[in-house]
Design goal:
about 240 residues; mainly alpha; 10 helices; two-stranded antiparallel sheet; DNA polymerase, domain 1
């Protein structure tokens, strides 16, 4: 959409401000209807528009102000070959044309929607609250309810939308733990009744820096006890 009067503006949602002709000229150095020509020369790295290497917004704006459009500037460039910008444009004229096509909006597409359909409107508060309750967004639900002055208790959750945790909220069992167990669980556990094997010994700090002592393994203790009994038997 071309901005043709000061009354026509665009809303910048990122900066929460309206942009009119004056703001466009301040940023691009040209009126709105010439922005495409400037972008064709300067490019836009955010949208992968190459432009002409070495030509930025300021130089591009100067060229368009002087020549009017990309094609006129390109045709006049050979006569100004002593200029660095002119040489860059001669070498990258086709790249500039491709860039212009990339930033040009398609105004020939058919649409049955009226422009006013895309305007910002107040949301349907009750429908929004029903969705937020289904998603279990408690804080957002409260904020919307306070803004719209609706008691959230009077609005049922939208059954067409269910939170991923709704099953747990209803008393369902949590998902099974992945193989290997919880790496952050306490390692000091009792022997597993299924395997009959003792748990892995745990290293414990003795309270002194750098000193660590191990808890005796039950199997090792039994072996030491047996060896001690055998030695007493020999002595006798």
């Amino acid at each position: 959409m071309q901005l043709v009067t000061d009354k026509v503006t665009m809303f910048d949602t990122m900066k929460d401000r309206r942009i009119g002709i004056a703001e466009v000229i301040e940023k691009f150095g040209v009126p709105p209807e010439k922005v495409v020509e400037v972008q064709a020369l300067a490019g836009d790295s955010t949208d992968n528009v190459p432009g002409v290497p070495g030509i930025g917004i300021k130089t591009a704006a100067q060229l368009i102000v002087e020549y009017g459009d990309l094609e006129t500037a390109a045709s006049c460039a050979p006569a100004r070959s002593s200029s660095r910008a002119a040489r860059a444009l001669i070498e990258n004229a086709e790249k500039a044309r491709i860039s212009r096509q990339l930033v040009l909006l398609d105004d020939k597409s058919s649409s049955t929607c009226r422009s006013m359909n895309f305007a910002v409107h107040e949301p349907d508060a009750r429908k929004l609250i029903a969705f937020l309750k289904a998603m279990e967004f408690s804080t957002l639900t409260r904020r919307v309810a306070e803004y719209s002055q609706i008691d959230p208790a009077d609005v049922a959750a939208d059954r067409n939308n269910k939170s991923a945790t709704s099953g747990l909220s209803a008393g369902a069992s949590p998902p099974p733990r992945a193989a290997g167990g919880d790496l952050f669980a306490d390692q000091e556990t009792s022997p597993s009744p299924a395997s009959g094997k003792s748990a892995r010994p745990v290293r414990q700090s003795s309270g002194q820096t750098g000193e660590v002592k191990r808890r005796p393994h039950p199997a090792g203790a039994r072996r030491r006890a047996c060896r001690g009994g055998a030695e007493h038997a020999v002595d006798r």
